[in-house]
Design a protein that fits this description.
Its main location: membrane. The chain is of the alpha+beta class. It has 7 helices and 13 strands. Strands 1, 2, 3, 4, 5, 6, 7 and 8 form an 8-stranded antiparallel beta sheet that branches. Helix 5 crosses helix 7 (232-243).
């Protein structure tokens, strides 16, 4: 049940099965801070907020969400921090990620559930925010490998999970060790599909590009962190799982 909300210069889509009392304010961290509903945060290009939500309906479940604002990267991000040229709602980064997450759910792939997105227009530009579900009891691979090793079965499972996405031609723009999560049952999830897409071409070189980018990510963390439990045999185990 995807509903739309138009309010002055705001346009939003939201899943009314997940949030029946949606308002534009729900896409602002200040709103959740006022409700004392923020349970944590993570720093990346910007701040990602972790939110606990429960509707006013009786017996409604408590939901764990992630709120993320879209920021530019690279040199242009230092000048135009979070504004993008507007060419239509469905071409905004938030709308495309929201739609892609729905597609991933239809394929039963381990990725977050889309909850809502909002686009705020200002003249020829827009800013955007996305609400999605939080993978419960999960940590990213950088956090995990900074504390412990993973056995070969888990490394193969990581590779096999990436292959599941690639079999459906799902391109992840920034596949790295921060965007792969393990929950407390050792199940693998992939997050952050900003600028991701479904590839509809016969050229599959992008798949190896995804894999190469991931390897560089592990090597970068290995060089940066005082303790990071990643070795070449671990990588070979991941590739074995990918190639099965």
């Amino acid at each position: 049940m995807i509903n739309e909300l138009n309010l002055h210069n705001h346009f939003c889509r939201y899943d009314s099965d997940k949030v029946s009392n949606f308002s534009v304010d729900m896409l602002s961290a200040n709103y959740w801070q006022a409700k004392d509903a923020i349970t944590g945060s993570a720093q990346g290009r910007g701040t990602t907020w972790f939110i606990q939500y429960q509707s006013n309906e009786s017996n409604s479940p408590v939901q764990q969400w992630v709120l993320r604002h879209y920021y530019r990267g690279g040199l242009i991000g230092k000048v135009i921090n979070d504004s993008y040229f507007f060419t239509g709602i469905d071409h905004t980064r938030a709308a495309k990620e929201f739609a892609l997450l729905h597609h991933l759910q239809s394929l039963n792939l381990p990725a977050p559930l889309p909850i809502a997105f909002g686009v705020k227009r200002s003249s020829l530009f827009y800013q955007a925010d996305l609400l999605s579900s939080r993978i419960e009891n999960a940590q990213d691979l950088v956090a995990i490998l900074s504390k412990q090793t993973l056995d070969g079965v888990i490394w193969q499972r990581i590779g096999a999970t990436i292959k599941r996405f690639h079999k459906h031609n799902i391109y992840h723009h920034d596949l790295n060790a921060h965007n792969i999560l393990l929950d407390d049952k050792q199940q693998v999830f992939i997050i952050d599909f900003d600028q991701g897409e479904v590839k509809n071409c016969s050229n599959t070189a992008w798949k190896q590009g995804n894999i190469a980018r991931l390897k560089r990510s592990f090597e970068k963390e290995n060089n940066k962190l005082p303790e990071f439990n990643f070795t070449q045999p671990n990588w070979q185990q991941l590739i074995t799982g990918y190639n099965k």
